From TrEMBL:
<comment type="similarity">
    <text>Belongs to the phD/YefM antitoxin family.</text>
</comment>
<protein>
    <recommendedName>
        <fullName>Antitoxin</fullName>
    </recommendedName>
</protein>
<comment type="function">
    <text>Antitoxin component of a type II toxin-antitoxin (TA) system.</text>
</comment>
<dbReference type="InterPro" id="IPR006442">
    <property type="entry name" value="Antitoxin_Phd/YefM"/>
</dbReference>
<dbReference type="InterPro" id="IPR036165">
    <property type="entry name" value="YefM-like_sf"/>
</dbReference>
<dbReference type="Pfam" id="PF02604">
    <property type="entry name" value="PhdYeFM_antitox"/>
</dbReference>
């Protein structure tokens, strides 16, 4: 964990974001007190579900696989409604 003052963080904000993107957590202080923590964003749950579905295709029991296929189709339908070119 890295600690820097608000002034330092302000002057090098692009670097702070780059470090957070690489997994670093930065504690920002002002007047010796912690005022903020900047760190990597958590993985999007949708991305994790999509990865699970991709990994598990063909290896699920019949009932669960049917449910997963239905869920995939619902998502596709919703994406088509939201994004006409999807």
């Amino acid at each position: 964990m890295k600690v820097m003052t608000a002034t330092e963080a302000s002057r090098s904000f692009a670097t702070v974001l780059d470090e957070a993107e690489r997994g670093e957590t930065i504690v920002v202080t002002r007047g010796g007190r912690q005022i903020a923590v900047i760190g990597p964003a958590p993985a999007a749950p949708g991305r994790m579900v999509k990865a699970f579905l991709a990994r598990s295709a063909g290896s699920l029991d019949d009932d669960f696989e049917t449910d997963v296929a239905a869920a995939r189709e619902m998502v596709r339908d919703e994406m088509r409604a939201t994004w006409p070119d999807a």
